[in-house]
Design brief:
The complex is a heterodimer of chains A (about 300) and B (about 550).
Chain A lengths: L6 H20 L10 E2 L3 E7 L11 H7 L3 E6 L5 E7 L11 H18 L3 E7 L7 E4 L5 H10 L12 H9 L7 E6 L8 H11 L3 E8 L1 H4 L5 E7 L5 E6 L1 H24 L3 E6 L4 H11 L5
Parallel strand pairs in A: 4-5, 4-7, 7-8, 8-11
Antiparallel strand pairs in A: 1-3, 2-3, 5-6, 9-10
Helix pairs in contact in A: 1-3, 1-9, 3-4, 3-9, 5-6
Chain B lengths: L1 H5 L2 H12 L2 E5 L3 H11 L3 H4 L1 H20 L5 H4 L4 E6 L8 E2 L2 E2 H14 L6 E6 L5 E7 L2 H10 L10 H11 L5 E7 L5 H5 L6 E4 L8 E10 L6 E10 L3 E9 L2 E10 L4 E9 L4 E9 L10 E6 L5 E6 L4 H9 L3 E6 L12 E5 L12 E5 L8 E8 L5 E2 L18 E7 L4 E6 L2 E7 L6 E4 L13 H11 L9 E2 L16 H11 L6 H25 L1
Parallel strand pairs in B: 2-5, 2-7, 7-8, 16-17, 16-18, 18-19, 19-25
Antiparallel strand pairs in B: 3-4, 5-6, 9-10, 10-13, 11-12, 11-14, 14-15, 15-26, 20-22, 21-23, 23-24, 24-25
Helix pairs in contact in B: 2-5, 5-14, 7-8
Classes of the chains: A alpha/beta (about 300), B alpha/beta (about 550).
């Protein structure tokens, strides 16, 4: 059986970290900072004094110069939470190599980058199986346990009924996670054409910074062999007998392209970082592309 | 046997069910197939039924093959004549080309196909509609013998009349029960054939389109019946589709005339040439054209004008200056004279003129005889007395010898009174007394001039030379026309005009369609089914 996280993959992760630091430095942003003003060390701004304010924060030197009371505001440094949502539905098991394998490898790589950046990274498998979430934590020491967690993660492998992405996301939101960067690794095949969009709506309402990595397989883009077949949904076990001729195949491919275009347009419109990757791509190459094309490093 | 073969349907059905079993195809999501579902559900009804139609076609193919192996006899095969009299038209018009092949080849191939369709119990006889008709092959069942007879047949260089062949075919048909007569021809015949077409005779016509031909439809030369040596050449050119070209006329190989012709479709051009010649001549004509012509053989024609033969006249008796001068003035007359009637006439004498008492006892069998004022009775009649002043009171106007001869003014001072021999005809008489009589219309031919011309003014009148001219011309051959050597003499054959439409359509309804063996039709249907099924299979696979 092919190893999910070979040694070469792990060695390349450090290189990715350096790339990520370089990119972040170029943007004159060291670590991620929260927008909260508070008890940090770095001055942020002034504001007029109001009764009840802490007198220790008054800028007395300024009062000496212009006889007005102002309060000094400092940025409060805070850990960034990176939530990695891993789609663990049966449809992710499709293809060879499967979409789920790439999704786990990308999750490991992104988690490594977050942990190396002293951010808090957590992983949640969204699927019909009740998989224990990997709670957000900080420090590279958490990385090896995370790899074991990801290796153990799995999809149902058999049909368990249609998986509602929006409901899965809603369940995760109900756990009241800290706001932060949310990266959703999914194929975005929901129970209905609007399912994935409803899930993204809910994530947006939770005020997370969202990034979507859609993992697709080349076979899914094409109708495949023509003729009369009984198509079976590997997730819901629903069957549909169809006579697929050239026209129907052409319409299928147009429908797939339209759906993907709709997803990309949705993300663009709502400022969501979006990348579509093929299940056959090398994970390190994908992460490098994510870093270079932007949206995934802040 | 058929039932056992019918069991083959079971594996066909079995294989078909195996083949059409739906294959299951797992997909990561039905999301997009569900989008297409309404369209797929609107699939035409026939497409949904296509699998069953395909199975029905396969079973039909199997049934057809089984039926073909059983060699059934269909209605049209049972109607096929058991005994066939085939008449092949060999006339020159059959060499006319229509499309890629000549009518001759088309008809011959049709005949060979008929022979190929003969069953072992069938018989055929083969006639050539030449003149006279020829039996190419008597009643036979051997296809090989019939084929060899057909392949040995050749078209004629001239036209032909099929009527004698049809009569012969009718007689041959009587020798077999339910025999049928089929004529393989281009149906270009003399017009009379149309009216005399026997009932029940089928025509297998090789003609399918309008004729595109121009030809010499009449070419004849003849001599004048009244003017020895004069000849007339008549030429007629007919075009079925319009013509522009020229006609070259030659006499003994030397150019005689050249005529530029422009004819409308169905147009006809006629012209005559006249001349005088005692010698014979060969006239020929050639049509020169630049356009395509179906029948080449009618673009040339020839006719031979025979040389005039001099008439030899033997005069028996004393010298008659008037008579001899008259004979010398008529062209192509050679005269000799004897004092006494010979015991044996010289050979090649056309006319003997005996006068006075130099008379034969019996009419010469091959030679015409003119008796002028015979002085005794004989086989021509009995002399009963003398007539003085015998005015001409009766004259046969319709007699050929008396054409343009006026005996009325002739003054006859003295004549013999005659009682003509039985069977003889009186041409001129005076008060019921015959003056000129005889038998000239049948052999032996003799004529009596019952008075002495010297006792009348007859030699001084024009009636005398005209009578002698008529008498001498009557000794020439009856048909003054020349010997035609045209490939297609006559005026019908080369016009390429077929029988009227009614006859043609009848012929096509009976003989136009080939009679195909039933098993062959079944196999053809099965092949059509295979093609249909193959197309349906491909459509299922690629649609």
């Amino acid at each position: 059986m092919k190893e999910l996280f070979p040694a070469a993959f792990l060695q390349q992760l450090e290189g990715l970290h350096l790339l990520a630091r370089q990119i972040a430095r170029g943007r004159q942003r060291a670590e991620r900072r929260s927008v909260k003003r508070g008890a940090g060390l770095e001055f942020a701004d002034h504001r007029p004094f109001s009764p009840g304010d802490d007198l220790r924060a008054v800028d007395w030197a300024g009062y000496a110069r212009n006889r007005h009371l102002f309060l000094k505001l400092f940025e409060e440094e805070e850990d960034l939470y990176v939530h990695l949502l891993l789609d663990a539905t049966t449809s992710m098991q499709w293809g060879e190599p499967s979409k789920f394998d790439l999704a786990r490898q990308l999750t490991a790589a992104l988690a490594y980058l977050a942990l190396a950046n002293l951010d808090r990274a957590g992983v949640n498998c969204l699927g019909p199986l009740e998989t224990r979430p990997w709670a957000p934590g900080r420090g590279r020491a958490r990385f090896l346990p995370l790899l074991r967690y990801l290796e153990a993660a799995q999809t149902p492998g058999v049909a368990t009924g249609a998986t509602d992405l929006a409901r899965q996301v809603a369940r995760w939101i109900a756990t009241n996670p800290r706001r932060g960067l949310l990266i959703w690794l999914t194929d975005a095949w929901g129970s209905s054409p609007d399912d994935a969009f409803l899930a993204l709506d809910r994530l947006r309402y939770a005020r997370h910074d969202i990034a979507v990595i859609q993992i697709v397989h080349a076979d899914e883009q094409l109708a495949g062999e023509l003729g009369e077949f009984e198509y079976e949904d590997v997730e819901s076990a629903e069957r549909k007998t169809l006579i697929v001729d050239r026209a129907a195949a052409r319409q299928y491919e147009e429908a797939v392209r339209a759906y993907e275009a709709r997803l990309a347009e949705y993300c663009r419109r709502h400022g969501i970082a979006f990348q579509r990757v093929d299940a056959g791509e090398a994970p390190v190459a994908v992460v490098r592309r994510l870093l270079l094309e932007g949206g995934f490093v802040r | 046997m058929a039932a056992w073969l019918g069991l083959l349907a079971l594996p066909v059905i079995g294989f078909y069910l195996l083949k059409t079993r739906q294959r299951r195809k797992p997909v990561p999501t039905l999301l997009f197939w569900n989008v297409l579902a309404p369209r797929v559900e609107r699939t035409p009804f026939w497409r949904k039924l296509r699998r069953w139609v395909s199975l029905a076609i396969q079973l039909l193919i199997l049934a057809l093959i089984i039926a073909a192996l059983a060699r059934p006899a269909f209605d049209w095969e049972r109607r096929e004549p058991r005994h066939l009299v085939a008449v092949l038209d060999p006339s020159a018009s059959m060499t006319a080309r229509e499309g890629r092949a000549a009518h001759w080849e088309t008809s011959r191939e049709a005949l060979l196909r008929s022979i190929a369709r003969l069953r072992p119990e069938d018989e055929m006889t083969l006639l050539s509609a030449a003149n006279p008709p020829a039996i190419l092959q008597g009643w036979a069942s051997s296809r090989r013998a019939l084929r060899e007879a057909v392949e040995a047949a050749r078209p004629l260089p001239t036209g032909s009349d099929p009527r004698p062949a049809l009569e012969l075919a009718g007689e041959l048909a009587l020798l077999r029960e339910r025999a049928e007569i089929v004529v393989f021809s281009d149906a270009v015949w003399p017009g009379a054939v149309e009216a005399e077409w026997p009932k029940g005779v089928r025509l297998h016509s090789s003609r399918t389109e309008k004729p595109r031909n121009t030809g010499i439809t009449h070419f004849s030369v003849r001599r004048s019946p009244i003017a020895p040596g004069d000849w007339q050449l008549d030429v007629e050119v007919t075009s079925a589709n319009g013509f522009e070209g020229r006609l070259e006329l030659q006499r003994d190989g030397q150019p005689l005339d050249l005529a530029e012709l422009t004819l409308e479709p169905q147009g006809r051009w006629q012209r005559s040439w006249r001349g005088n010649a005692e010698a014979g001549a060969l006239f020929s004509a050639n049509l020169r054209m630049s356009e395509e012509d179906q029948l080449i053989s009618d673009n040339h024609a020839a006719a031979r004008l025979p040389a005039l033969k001099p008439l030899r006249v033997l005069i028996v008796g004393p010298v008659d200056g008037y008579l001899e001068a008259l004979l010398d003035s008529i062209p192509l007359v050679q005269r000799t004279r004897l004092e006494h009637y010979p015991a044996v006439l010289p050979e090649e004498v056309d006319l003997v003129i005996a006068r006075g008492d130099q008379l034969p006892d019996a009419p010469p069998p091959e030679t015409a005889l003119l008796l002028i004022a015979p002085q005794r009775s004989g086989f021509w009649g009995e002399q009963t007395g003398r007539l003085a002043e015998a005015p001409v009171s009766e004259q046969q106007k319709s007699a050929r010898l008396l054409q343009h001869v006026q005996f009325g003014p002739v003054a006859i001072r003295e004549a013999a009174q005659w009682q003509p021999a039985p069977g003889s005809e009186t041409l001129v008489a005076s008060m019921d007394h015959p003056l000129v009589f005889g038998q000239w219309d049948r052999s032996p031919r003799w004529l009596v001039l019952g008075f002495d011309p010297s006792q009348s003014d007859f030699p001084l009148r024009t009636a005398f030379p005209v009578l002698m001219g008529n008498l001498l011309e009557s000794l020439r051959p009856d048909d003054p026309s020349g010997e035609g050597t045209a490939l297609l003499p006559g005026n019908v054959e080369s016009r390429l005009v077929s029988l009227p439409v009614e006859a043609e359509s009848e012929s096509q309804s009976t003989g136009g369609w080939p009679v195909l063996p039933g098993w062959w039709c079944l196999v053809a249907l099965a092949l059509a089914g295979v093609t249909l099924e193959w197309g349906s299979f491909n459509r299922r696979m690629t649609d």
